[in-house]
Design brief:
Blueprint (H helix, E strand, L loop, with lengths): L7 E6 H15 L4 E5 L1 H5 L3 H11 L3 E4 L2 H9 L6 E3 L8 H6 L2 E5 L2 H13 L4 E8 L7 E2 L5 H11 L5 E8 L9 H23 L6 E5 L1 H6 L7 E2 L21 E6 L2 E5 L4 E2 L5 E2 L4 E6 L16 E4 L2 E6 L7 E4 L11 E5 L5 H7 L4 H7 L6 E5 L2 E6 L5
Parallel strand pairs: 1-20, 2-3, 2-10, 3-4, 4-5, 5-6, 6-7, 6-8, 8-9, 9-10
Antiparallel strand pairs: 1-11, 11-19, 12-15, 13-14, 15-18, 16-17, 17-18, 20-21
Helix pairs in contact: 1-3, 10-11
Bound molecules: pyridoxal-5'-phosphate (PLP).
Length: 388
């Protein structure tokens, strides 16, 4: 559906993406390919437009987490290779082949099922092998107890006729954490990763693309670049490590003050009456609520940015609206736009107050919120994800 209404919207700045892309490329050196992680609608930023911009910038690979997300990119004409990081049942082989998806293979059973299905379909499935070095999610286990069995399994997997194995990768659990214990664990994970690759090499099995660096490792361990790196959150310019790298947030979530009202001292605001005015108050009503992605945990905790200062959220966040205190900001009036998250009002800070991570807050910006895309400082397109 096309949007006519712009009352609550997300501005997506592809100039910020270009800035972040070049900064991260510089960080990881000239030889590593850039894989942009655009799963979950590019963490809420719009996967098609983000993928298109990454392709223009020169990224070599994309990743998603569900084959429908790959289909969405192919239907939009995106041609870059796409790595499927998540689980796919082998009965989806035709979708994988038709959409030229590089499917990760996480176990010998899965590898066998995919290979059989691909042979039956008359094709070969492009594959990256997933190693579990300590995340304990998907992959061939590479800890001491499982290493030798996994080495044998991988040797068999690499001989399967239906797989066209291009790469091998692993994923870190605490690469974004600075404590000594976390650094030690990340180095252990990396040692397990390279040990398995080395042992396979002794058997004549090599990979064109070895990769392990997510955002945390990209920021903290550039020596782990290998043949490719896989930034997600920092590419969008957010997460705790983005500021130190000089990265810029791509998303600015904005809304417009709908009405301003005056209340006497003692008036309570919103459901549950959790906020009570302790003075005569000016209160703005905003057309944004938890159904737009403004987490209800931010009730009485967050603030919006106005050109005259921050206005605190008061009372509970409702489904479609919330209230702000404008008593100390007499210049602010109905019709003014305010920033809910963005360069003046970091989603990283909101995430801490909501006891979550910035990933969850940008992913939560809902289908009701139009995305307005900017490139070279100008609006290039807009998108609303409601059914037409
Ligand atoms: C989501 C994901 C990434 C990107 O993670 P960030 O922390 O956003 O950089 C990289 N690799 C895998 C396997 C993932 O699932």
């Amino acid at each position: 559906m096309e949007t006519t209404l712009v009352r609550t919207w997300a501005e997506i700045d592809f100039d910020a993406l270009a800035h972040n892309y070049h900064a991260l490329r510089k960080q990881m050196g000239p030889h590593a390919r850039f894989l942009g992680v655009v799963k979950a609608d590019a963490y809420g930023h719009g996967s098609v437009e983000t993928a298109r911009t990454l392709a223009e910038l020169g990224a070599e690979y994309l990743a998603i987490s569900n084959v429908d997300e790959a289909r969405e990119l192919r239907l939009a004409g995106i041609e870059l290779p796409i790595l499927q990081l998540g689980l796919t049942p082998a009965d989806q082989i035709q979708v994988i082949l038709d959409n030229r998806v590089t499917q990760n293979v996480w176990s010998e059973e899965a590898a066998q099922a995919f290979s059989d299905a691909a042979v039956k379909a008359g094709g070969r499935m492009k594959t990256h092998i997933k190693l579990d070095t300590g995340m304990s999610r998907l992959g061939f286990q590479c800890d001491e107890a499982h290493f030798d069995a996994s080495l044998e399994a991988l040797t068999r997997v690499c001989a399967l006729p239906g797989l066209d194995i291009e790469g091998v990768f692993t994923h870190f659990a605490v690469s974004d954490e600075a404590s000594d214990a976390s650094r030690e664990y990340t180095l252990l994970q990396h040692d397990r990763f390279t040990a398995m690759i080395d042992r396979l090499k002794e058997r004549g099995i090599t990979f064109q693309i070895c990769h392990c660096a997510n955002s945390g490792a990209t920021a903290g361990y550039p020596q782990f670049a290998h043949d490719m790196f896989r930034p997600g959150i920092i590419m969008y310019g957010i997460g705790d490590q983005a500021p130190a790298l000089g990265l810029r947030p791509m998303m600015t979530l904005k809304t417009v003050i709908g009405v301003v009202k005056e209340y006497t001292e003692g008036t309570t605001i919103s459901y549950g009456r959790t906020f009570r005015a302790d003075r005569p108050s000016r209160v703005g009503v905003l057309p944004i609520g938890y159904a737009d992605g403004l987490h209800r945990m931010l009730s009485n905790k967050w603030r919006v940015w106005t050109p005259y200062g921050m206005a605190p959220l008061i009372g509970r966040v409702c489904m479609d609206m919330c209230m702000i205190d404008l008593t100390d900001l007499p210049e602010v009036k109905a019709g003014d736009a305010v920033e809910v998250y963005g360069p003046h009002n970091s989603v990283n800070d909101a995430a801490k107050l909501a006891e979550t991570i910035s990933y969850e807050l940008t992913c939560a910006v809902s289908k009701r919120v139009p995305r307005i895309y900017y490139k070279n400082g100008r609006e290039i397109s807009r998108e609303l994800l409601l059914r037409g």
